[in-house]
Each structure stands twice: as structure tokens, then as C-alpha cells.
Design brief:
- The complex is a heterodimer of chains A (about 290) and B (about 450).
- In chain A, about 40% of the residues lie in helices and about 20% in strands.
- With about 290 residues, chain A is an alpha+beta fold.
- In chain A, helix 1 packs antiparallel against helix 2.
- The relative contact order of chain A is 0.19.
- Chain B folds into 3 domains: about 80 residues, Phosphorylase Kinase, domain 1 (2-Layer Sandwich), CATH 3.30.200; about 200 residues, Orthogonal Bundle (Transferase(Phosphotransferase), domain 1); about 100 residues, Tumour Suppressor Smad4 (Sandwich).
- Helices cover about 25% and strands about 25% of the residues of chain B.
- Chain B contains 10 helices and 23 strands.
- In chain B, the strands form 6 sheets. A 6-stranded antiparallel sheet of chain B has the order 1-2-3-4-6-5, covered by helices on one side. In chain B, strands 15-14-23-22-19-20 form a 6-stranded antiparallel sheet, with no helix packed on it.
- The longest helix of chain B has 20 residues.
- The radius of gyration of chain B is 24 Å and the shape is globular.
- The interface between A and B is large, with 45 and 35 residues.
Chain lengths: ~290, ~450
């Protein structure tokens, strides 16, 4: 088993939807993917309508708080191969992490509200906390990758796509039923942690880990006529990364997202992490050996 | 995700058969589960993570396979699959689709009823009781291992590969949320076993019925990161029940814990009292923990006392027995109107079961026994049910669904025979001889 330090090629970009007051998406991509520096990817999409007037801040709070919690979680996973650790980590990832995330986000949003109260509210009764949180409503898709673990969480719409070591495309957090229209689960919902979906995938052979991880807000997937179009996009991204390398794709990404945004009319954000080529090649080599045998 | 094994991989089974990997079903804390093709049809293969594939775990699995435990409530290891590339596993039956995980329940992704949840609790208690009565400690009771049918309450207990004979060593000591406090604290004399299973069982029942962990109140709100010391404090060193009558410092927060405040209020004292004992004295004194028989008796009594709200139709728990205290519907707040009660009395050792005659109320075979080994609420064990007159809405009768002919005696002393399939009109004071020395009486309250 090889559990050395490995690094990822990463990229991220966000474009504002046509006619939007501001870009209500936010994203982050931090860390190398090494054991003491987990790779953390996140995108968030503030709801944007008038009742969610501060959602661009909500999206930023969601990403920022997620990055802190996920990095701490990834570092805590360093000893996950000790006896019993994986079971405990999984229980935390599935049960406790969503609650911690929602609490942190609420704390950030309510703290901001306290510091930035509406100026014209003198004499009006103090809103309930739930009403304040609605102002900041947002979705979130986030993932943490270490040499030993790949864990992802999602609340609301947006997409996580993973290309496995064998080239298979998976969407492990896609809901059984898509949200209808623009309705979506939100961090501002009552007991929002119940709506958080979790993907859990320990890694025991570095070469069998994902080779490409792509997170995007729904501005991207909505720009396609069908789910098949989105899948084709991710497969095409994987192909171009293989053919042109990360630099070429990184340069082209803003224009791709602008095009998508023109079709969806929404802010559009994508972050992606590509596993280094030598590891992918090693996996391919192993697959070939298996086929031959 | 492809996991540790690729589709198409063939593995030898200890019994001489071969299996072929079809695809991965999921990943857990100890290993991955795959759908596999075998000569006997499709099965599930649990494949351990290399770090969990220890000689001790192998010995446990081999012992469980040899034990050949035949019980439809458990997905038991059936065959050992020997080492391949540093790991091993075992075959078990596939979990039917109708069984759903508890995380789905807690995320409100399932539609179920209080009756189905109470039934699931009752069946879960009896399943663990069946293990303990054979001298097997489960040691890993948690919400990840119990699956239930939200329509019927049927349960299926999975991941039985940590169950060991009482006194044997097991690879794990449970999930901290479900672990007995003395195990969380790591006390030198404390060992996982039947006593600690009773704590885990109480936590599981509380979570099923209340949708919340019994020790996660205000104190838990301060824990924001993966902090083992804080977890140990919460579940082991300073555990405090969220409804501890003597100490409210860990009471539910009205905003964060609104669900458990509502579900606790919807429960009845017969269950609340057992939970209070489990999570007050039971936290400190393992010997005082609520036994399976106590849970079983309370749960079956409350199950028989579930009624529907006349205003909104929602199912409500009511206090079992005669003259329960007045109660408002948890859904709409209307005062509950209690239907008549059927008191079933068994032959010696005499036991009495009070069944509230709500719409479609049922008498099951287990009601006719003083100490049923196992409760069964399915159609297969139906003895009688309340039915509405097909031509006269609002008039009800008790239909004989058994194979026995009953004798019914009205309050005026007149009697009639009720053959299988026949219905006797519901009247206060009606006495039924259900055969085998079992008598039932309809009471107005």
C-alpha cells in the first residue's frame, strides 16, 4: 500500500449570470491533498431572490465555514487506519459534521445580521432567528480528499461528479429525485442538517482513488437540456485534461462557464481537482494486468 | 465508486463455491458491501478494509458462520470468503428494498406511522433478546445496523459480524454515541456485553421514537469539531439525559432541538419512565438498566393503545389501560376521543392485554398468549379485527379471522356462536370466548 504525499492539479472559476445584481455563488479550493494538508473543494449558490437578499454572503459563509471544518476533519483522518477509527470517522461524517456545519453557518449569518442590522427597522420588532437566516439562504457542495479518504457533503442543488480510476463517471450525491424547478434544500431551512447528503469512500490503494473530482453550482447543469448533457461535459473535461493538461483547461474554463451561464441565466461556478498523471497511469497499468490475467 | 474490488472479479468461497462481483452497494466503517453472483443466486458480500481484516475478526466471522443462526430478523454471515489481496469477507443475503435505514427516517425521507415505529421498536427488542438468550452479545448496536420497513415495522439487523459469545473478545466496542458510558470512559473492568448492549438498545429505541439522541442537548451545541475529548465527556464522563428530571442543564434547545421536544410530548409516561430510568440511574448503574422484557411489555402495551385523532386522523400514543389521562393530538391539538377497549385475558399464567378499538384495530395471535416468544403484527397471525358495517357506516363489529368458532355473550346474557369469517356487533359488555381459555371483554373506557 502506498500512502505517501500526493498533490492534485486544481482549478476553479465563477461567472456572474447575465442581468444579475451580483454573483451570488462562492467557491474555494484549498490544500494539496497530503495527509496534513487535505484538499478541500466547495461551491455554494446563494438563492438570490428578494427574500434571500444577503444570499451572496450566505454562500461565502457556507464555503468558508465548510473549508475550516472539512480541513480539520481531513487532518483528524490521518490516523484513520487505526483500529476503530474509520467507524468513528464515518459516524462523525454522516451524523455530526452536518450539524456542526449548519451551526457554524448559522453563527456566521446571525453574527453578520447583528453587525449589519437594517437601518430602517427602528421600532419594528426583532425578527426571529429563522427569519434572519432566510436572508442568507444558500446551497453547498463540498468535498475533502486525503490520501486515505474521499468524503463529500451536499445540501440543495448543485453537482458532484467523480471520474474513477477506471474512467467511470459517478454522481454519488445526486438525489433520487431532482428538486422541482427552482425549489431547493437550503442551509437556512429548519433543521437543515437533516437535508445534508453524505458520500463516504475510504481509500486503501492510492491508485484506485478518483482521478477527477468536479463540483459545480446548478448554473452549469441547468445550461444543458438534459442530465446527459452534463455528463458529456464532465467526460469531455476529463478527456481535455488528459489531452491538454490542466493549464489548457484552466485557460478555457472561464469562457465555458460564460457560455453555460448564457444558457442557464444563472451564476455558474466550477471547481475541479485532477489526480496527477503518474498515479492514473499506475491504475491503468494495474487494470491492464488484471485483464491480462 | 469502484471500491476495493472491481466488477467481474471472481473470489473463492470457503464452501467450494465461487462468487463474481457485480457492483458495490456501499461503504461503511469496517468494510464495503458488494452485490455478487453465486450459484444460489445474488447475494451480498461484506469485504473488510485491510486494517479491519485481522485474525481476530476472521475468527469471529468463522465462528458466526459455523453457528448457522437461522432467524429471519438477521442478515447473518452465511459463508466465509477467504483472503484475497490482503482482505477477506463473508456472504449474506441481500437486504430487500422494503427495508430502509434509520438515517433516512431521521432526514424525513421516509413516510411512516407511530404504530410502525412502535412495532419496529418491539421487533428490535425481541431480536436482540433472541441473541442474548443464546448467550450472544451484539456489541455494535447502532442506527447503522438496523433497517426497518416503514409500512409494517418489520426489522432486519445487519452487520452481525461483531456479535460474539458473551465473554469472548470482539474487535470493536461500539459506536461512541451508542456505547455504554463505562465503555466510553474506558474503565478497566468494563467489557462490552449484554449489559452494555442494554444501554445501546435504549439509545436506539429513543432515537427511533424521539428522532434524537438522548444525551445531545444544550451541552452538545458547543461541540463544533471532531473532538474526541468532548465526545467522551458527552457520552461517557458527564452524560446527562436531555429530560433528566433533576438536572435541566442539558435540556433541549427550543430552536436546535425542536423535534425531540415535540416527540417527547407525543410519547406516553409508560415509555418516558423507562427512558428516564435508562438515562439517569441506568447511566451510572448498569445493573439497573431496563431489561428487554420491560421494554417489550411497555412497547406492546403502548402499541395496543395507539388511537387515531377524530379531527385530523393522525395516530397518537395514549396511556395503556383503564382511564388514561386526557391527551391532545400531537398534530392538530384536538382533544383525543378514546374508542372502546377490548380486554383480552389469557389462561394462567394469567396476562391481560388492553386493545383500544380504533378503526381497523387487530387482535393478533400473540394477544392470546401470556408470554409470547415473539410478537407478530402481520396478517398471517391475525385473529380478529374491527370492521365497519358495509351498509351502515359508523357501525362496527369484531370479525373472526381465526380458525376457531367463538362464543359471544352480550350484557343481557344472550349468546351466539361466531364462526370464522363472521362478525359480531360491537357492544359494551360483550364477552367473547376466543377458545383455549382466552376471554375478551369490550369495555366502554
Amino acid at each position: 500500500m502506498t500512502l505517501g504525499v500526493r498533490r492534485w492539479d486544481t482549478m476553479g472559476e465563477s461567472v456572474q449570470g447575465v442581468g444579475k445584481r451580483c454573483n451570488q455563488d462562492w467557491w474555494a479550493c484549498e490544500g494539496t491533498g497530503a495527509g496534513d494538508e487535505p484538499l478541500v473543494l466547495a461551491v455554494a449558490d446563494g438563492h438570490g431572490s428578494a427574500v434571500h437578499a444577503r444570499s451572496e454572503l450566505g454562500a461565502r459563509f457556507a464555503v468558508d465555514r465548510f473549508v475550516g471544518l472539512a480541513a480539520a476533519f481531513g487532518r483528524a483522518a490521518r490516523d484513520c487506519h487505526e483500529r476503530g477509527s474509520l467507524a468513528r470517522l464515518m459516524a462523525y461524517a454522516r451524523d455530526d459534521f452536518p450539524r456542526a456545519l449548519v451551526q457554524e453557518w448559522r453563527s456566521a449569518a446571525l453574527g453578520h445580521w447583528d453587525r449589519h442590522r437594517p437601518v430602517a427597522d427602528v421600532g419594528t420588532p426583532e425578527p426571529e432567528a429563522a427569519e434572519k437566516l432566510v436572508l442568507y439562504g444558500t446551497t453547498l457542495v463540498g468535498a475533502v480528499v486525503t490520501p486515505w479518504l474521499f468524503v463529500a457533503w451536499q445540501i440543495g442543488d448543485g453537482d458532484l461528479a467523480v471520474i474513477g480510476h477506471d474512467g467511470e463517471l459517478l454522481r454519488p450525491l445526486a438525489p433520487a429525485e431532482e428538486d422541482l424547478g427552482d425549489e431547493t434544500e437550503s442551509l437556512c431551512g429548519a433543521q437543515a442538517w437533516r437535508a445534508v447528503r453524505t458520500h463516504w469512500a475510504p481509500l486503501f490503494d492510492e491508485a484506485r482513488g478518483p482521478r477527477l473530482v468536479v463540483l459545480s453550482t446548478d448554473g452549469l447543469s441547468k445550461s444543458f437540456a438534459s442530465a446527459e448533457g452534463y455528463r458529456d461535459f464532465v467526460v469531455g473535461l476529463d478527456d481535455r485534461l488528459a489531452a491538454e493538461g490542466a493549464d489548457g483547461v484552466r485557460a478555457a474554463l472561464p469562457e465555458w462557464l460564460r457560455q453555460a451561464s448564457r444558457y442557464s441565466g444563472d451564476d455558474t461556478t466550477l471547481v475541479a481537482a485532477l489526480r496527477p498523471g503518474h498515479l492514473a497511469l499506475e491504475a491503468d497499468h494495474k487494470s491492464e494486468q488484471k485483464t491480462e490475467s | 465508486m469502484s471500491g476495493m474490488l472491481d466488477s467481474g472479479t471472481r473470489l473463492a468461497v470457503d464452501n467450494g463455491d465461487e462468487v463474481e462481483i457485480i457492483g458495490m452497494l456501499g461503504a461503511g466503517g469496517q468494510g464495503e458491501v458488494y452485490r455478487v453472483r453465486t450459484a444460489a443466486g445474488e447475494k451480498a458480500l461484506k469485504w473488510y478494509y485491510p486494517t479491519c481484516a485481522t485474525p481476530e475478526q476472521e475468527a469471529i466471522v468463522q465462528e458466526l458462520v459455523e453457528r448457522d443462526f437461522d432467524d429471519d430478523r438477521f442478515l447473518w454471515p452465511e459463508s466465509f470468503v477467504p483472503a484475497h489481496r490482503g482482505s477477506f469477507g463473508y456472504l449474506m443475503a441481500l437486504r430487500p428494498d422494503r427495508f430502509k435505514g434509520l438515517p433516512d427516517l431521521f432526514r424525513r425521507q421516509l413516510r411512516t406511522t407511530p404504530r410502525a415505529l412502535l412495532t419496529a421498536c418491539l421487533y428490535t427488542v425481541e431480536a436482540y433478546q433472541a441473541l442474548h438468550s443464546r448467550g450472544i452479545a451484539y456489541r455494535d448496536i447502532s442506527w447503522g445496523n438496523v433497517f426497518f420497513d416503514p409500512a409494517t415495522g418489520d426489522v432486519l439487523i445487519c452487520d452481525n459480524d461483531n456479535a460474539v459469545v458473551e465473554g469472548d473478545a470482539s474487535g470493536i466496542s461500539g459506536t461512541m454515541k451508542f456505547m455504554a458510558p463505562e465503555l466510553v470512559r474506558g474503565e478497566p473492568d468494563a467489557r462490552p456485553g449484554t449489559q452494555s448492549d442494554l444501554h445501546s438498545l435504549a439509545v436506539l429505541l429513543f432515537m427511533l421514537l424521539m428522532n434524537h439522541h438522548p444525551l445531545e442537548g444544550r451541552r452538545e451545541l458547543g461541540i463544533h469539531c471532531f473532538d474526541e475529548a468532548a465526545e467522551k465527556r458527552l457520552y461517557g464522563k458527564e452524560p446527562l439525559f436531555v429530560f433528566d428530571p433533576a438536572d435541566t442543564s442539558n435540556a433541549p434547545d427550543p430552536m436546535e432541538h425542536a423535534t425531540v421536544l415535540a416527540t417527547w410530548n407525543a410519547a406516553v409516561a409508560k415509555l418516558q419512565d423507562l427512558f428516564v430510568r435508562s438515562f439517569t440511574t441506568g447511566l451510572r448503574d448498569p445493573a439497573s438498566r431496563v431489561r428487554e422484557t420491560e421494554w417489550r411489555n411497555a412497547l406492546r402495551a403502548v402499541l395496543d393503545a395507539v388511537v387515531e385523532c377524530a379531527s385530523c386522523g393522525r395516530e397518537n400514543m395514549t396511556e395503556p389501560g383503564e382511564n388514561p389521562p386526557p391527551k391532545a393530538c400531537w398534530g392538530c391539538g384536538a382533544q383525543l376521543v378514546l374508542p372502546p377497549r377490548l380486554t383480552v385475558t389469557t389462561p394462567p399464567p394469567r396476562a391481560q392485554h388492553d386493545i383500544r378499538l380504533r378503526r381497523a384495530a387487530r387482535v393478533q395471535a400473540h394477544h392470546l398468549l401470556p408470554e409470547p416468544a415473539r410478537h407478530d403484527c402481520s396478517d398471517g397471525s391475525l385473529v380478529a379485527e374491527l370492521v365497519e358495517h358495509p351498509a351502515k357506516p359508523g357501525r362496527f363489529g369484531i370479525a373472526n379471522r381465526s380458525k376457531e368458532t367463538w362464543t359471544g355473550t352480550r350484557s343481557d346474557g344472550s349468546s351466539q356462536q361466531i364462526a370464522p369469517g363472521q362478525t359480531v356487533p360491537l357492544r359494551s359488555g360483550l364477552e367473547l370466548d376466543l377458545g383455549g381459555g382466552v376471554r375478551a371483554v369490550v369495555r366502554a373506557k
